[in-house]
Amino acid sequence: MRAIVQDELGGPEVLKLAEIDRPEPCPTEVLVRVKAAGVNPTDWKTRASGGLLGPPPFRVGWDVSGVVEQVGFGAALWKPGDEVFGMLKYPEGAGAYAEYVTAPARHFRKKPESIDHVQAAAIPLAALSAWQALVDTGGLKGGERVLIHAAAGGVGHLAVQMAKARGAYVIGTASAAKHGFLRGLGADELVDYTTTDFSGTVRDVDLVIDLIGGDYGPRSLRTLRPGGTIVSLALSRLDPTLHEQAAALDIRDEAILVEADQAGLKAIAALVDAGRLRVEVAAALPLEEAAKAHELGETNRTAGKIVLICD
Question: Looking at residue 306, what is its pLDDT?
Fold first, then answer.
């Protein structure tokens, strides 16, 4: 099968198209013919640094939408021909940039009927990140105020919609050029981070979703009410003093890594089919242009997600 591989760390040019052996599903696993694979910031960060995978050779990519090709022993949820979408185990399950992948059967859900494989491939990792931050960890309720940083990005624009679907008041940080896009998704209040310090204007927030890291964590503490929560997903840039600062202000802080989660995917698919969640696909490129996809993503100028077409 065709797959994108890398033998060294570096820029997008280290991503190479190669012919490798097609995997076989183990017990409780399925083999999926990949129609499309999502591209996420963790992909190009891992490509460049090794991230949680360590030194290469390795393959990146965790988002998949496709068709079940073969079912391993005991994986009774699916049959060949079923259309599914899901997320490979993070981080060690990487390898979505390929014509076939294997993964535990319960890492997949039925693909939402209202969208195609390109849109479905853009959803799992980003949407599960948003869901697990907002709902599972943040416990967001209707009527609460949530501040979402990098609100126009892959995770952010989905988090905005999920928060609105739960009845929250949504504040987002994004450049002015992306405010119209975010208002169209339901954002109630927007801050242009290029001209305004959000920590001086936003107050009485119940929950902060930090997708940036650095000084955004400590600055966000000023926006939270006592008893509020900050959930950080930008772990590589997490301020080491955040926990102590938060505790002094009676604020709960949590740092999470996204997990494959069938229950979360079910809830996300329901929102998609109900018309309450849509993914913005900034670009869809063929598998062999993986390097170009990374180049585009690393500009940080795209709104939404980038997808590779693998079939």
Answer: 97
